[in-house]
From TrEMBL:
Entry keyword set: Membrane, Transmembrane, Transmembrane helix
Pfam families membership: ABC2_membrane_4
Name this polypeptide is given: ABC transporter permease
Entry's transmembrane regions: 21-40, 52-72, 109-127, 139-156
Length: 171
């Protein structure tokens, strides 16, 4: 399983997925921080940690499924474009291991994205001078709930991307 997972990371190294993730994350966080700045400018009582966490959690409802679909589609597209499914099946690696390796690979990339979001939220709150220390309990809940929904969306998207050869339709 470890070798299969290592091969998945090896295969995506030239796909520029990390650049796409950074751009996607940058757009989402910029949009969120502009929205929060406007809210704070209108009402200073909105300058609290909970408002940042709530705003970004709400925006993740839109952005994370799209990002998940793009990442999974890019990972699964390699096998469709190269017609390597038959070759993979003839090796001693089972279909379940292939699915699991792709699933873990995609979710690890998304997990690092969620951690980066959390770090950016903390930095934003500290720069803006929010009262009190960052609420680590809420941040852990944010990470856990976002990751939990991401795992479900990724599983569904990967099933669709593996079943359908045309990735434009799978998206």
């Amino acid at each position: 399983m470890i070798k299969t997972l290592g091969l998945e990371y090896f295969k995506i190294r030239r796909k520029k997925i990390s650049i796409m993730i950074m751009l996607f994350l940058g757009v989402e966080m910029l949009w969120a921080f502009i929205s929060i700045n406007r809210s704070i400018a209108g009402n200073q009582d909105q300058a609290i940690w909970e408002s940042v966490i709530h705003t970004i959690a709400s925006m993740n409802g839109l952005f994370i499924p799209i990002l998940s679909a793009i990442i999974v589609s890019r990972i699964c597209d390699m096998e469709h474009k190269g017609s390597t499914w038959k070759i993979l099946v003839t090796t001693n690696v089972g279909r379940g291991q292939i699915y699991s390796a792709k699933y873990i690979c995609a979710n690890s990339l998304l997990f690092y994205t969620i951690l980066a979001q959390t770090l950016l939220m903390v930095m934003f709150g500290l720069i803006k001078g929010f009262p009190g220390a960052p609420p680590f309990e809420l941040l852990i809940q944010f990470i856990g709930s976002t990751l939990l929904t991401t795992l479900a969306v990724t599983a569904l998207q990967q099933w669709i991307s593996l079943a359908i050869k045309n990735q434009a339709f799978a998206l």
